[in-house]
Amino acid sequence: MAVTSKYLVIYFVLIIYFLGIIHSMSSRNISSSQFRHRRSYGERRKGKDGVSNIKGQLSGKPGVFVTENCTVVLAQIGGTATLPCVVRKFNSGVVSWIRKQDYHLLTVGLATYNTDDRFLVEHVRHLQNWGLLIKHVQLSDAGLYECQVSTHPPTNILVELKVTKAKAEIQGAPDLHIRSGSLLRLVCTLQYSTETPAYVFWYHEQRMINYDPGVSVIEGRSSSILHLKEADKSNNGNYTCSPSNAVPASINVHVLNATAEEKPAAMQHANSSSSTNSIAKCSLLIVTIILIPVLPNT
Ligand SMILES: *[C@@H]1O[C@H](CO)[C@@H](O)[C@H](O)[C@H]1NC(C)=O
Ligand SMILES: *[C@@H]1O[C@H](CO)[C@@H](O)[C@H](O)[C@H]1NC(C)=O
Ligand SMILES: *[C@@H]1O[C@H](CO)[C@@H](O)[C@H](O)[C@H]1NC(C)=O
Ligand SMILES: *[C@@H]1O[C@H](CO)[C@@H](O)[C@H](O)[C@H]1NC(C)=O
Q: Where would you find the membrane-spanning parts of this chain (predicted)?
């Protein structure tokens, strides 16, 4: 009996342990799938591991900057980029932004020194932030920017701007086969996007169908889902997902005759299960495999 209860204890400890792993795996999966999470303040460190530098503790000695050196910022074409430069309190000195590629002085203090009025300083006094705001980001804006503080001697950090081209993607493209009378469900997701689009228009061939009867569109932060009730042959054709600020995507929908017993191998479902579920399944499999040698002894 004592042996049995010992094994039972081990059994439950293992179950709790693996449930913990499954939980951490699925929650990590969710956060990494949320692209917008990284938005424009996506801080990544080049070179040395920056674990101790995240809050600006530069290996013990307090630096002028709170913002990490070599911070990377992502912004999509046409969007707004915010390059951070948070400094510690200093008595004198001015913060300037310089574009590295041509050593162009962009801003000094709160003043913009550039004919290009897309560049602005976003100063938050009590936070000591001297972020550089770049509006209507262009591909040519990509590169290194220097935030310089005129201490003695002057000191600076670099911020890298990476410019992305946002594009739409429809799950199941290029072809989707559904049965006549069933729900047509199209999922459009945004790739390389840093900003939520103002709108997403859906087109059937050349016609916008967002407000058609039987159609509903569900907008997410980086996705748009089209539902069309009881599809029939007239719903055949090319569907386009066109976000306001991203390259559109298209899919060919084939509505199959409900009476015909045709079941093409290429039958696809737009709402197939997510990868999160498969990871959880994998972990459950590991639990059973490990527990099998324990059980026969009881
Ligand atoms: C940041 O990195 C650049 C290039 O590696 C270097 O020149 C600069 O001194 C660094 N700044 C600080 C505050 O460490
Ligand atoms: C579907 O329509 C879009 C927009 O009209 C077009 O760009 C695309 O080439 C079409 N695709 C096909 C396969 O016809
Ligand atoms: C679809 O079914 C209808 C009858 O329900 C039939 O008249 C038509 O020929 C069928 N079409 C195809 C392509 O099988
Ligand atoms: C979508 O998922 C639901 C249940 O999750 C299922 O009943 C339905 O058949 C699916 N539709 C398609 C087109 O895969």
A: 7-26
Question: Tens of pLDDT along 156-169?
Answer: 999 999 999 999 99
Asked which of 110, 143, 164 is the last residue of a domain, the reply is: 164
Helix axes 275-291, 2-33, angle to 10 degrees: 160
Using the 3D structure, point to which of 145, 164, 183 is the last residue of a domain.
Answer: 164
pLDDT tens, residue by residue, 168-190: 999 998 999 999 999 999 999 99
Residue type, position 67, single letter: T
Claim: this prediction has a pTM higher than 0.90: no
The CA–CA distances, whole Å, from 295 to 9, 49, 288, 298 equal: 12, 44, 10, 6
Which structural domain range is residue 276 located in? 1-33+271-298
Question: Are residue 92 and residue 207 in the same domain, yes or no?
Answer: no
